Amino acid sequence: MTTDKNDTKTKIMDTAEGFIVQGGYNAFSFRDIAEAVGIKSASVHYHYPTKADLVSAVMARYTESFSIQLPDPTDESLDPKIMINGFIDGFKAKIVDQRDMSLCTMLTSNKATLPEAVCIELAAFYQLILDWLTHVFVRLDKVDKNAGFMKASQLLASLHGASILVQGTNQPDFFNHALSDWRMAYS
Question: Hey, what domains does the chain have and what are their CATH numbers?
Answer without folding.
Answer: 52-185 (1.10.357.10)
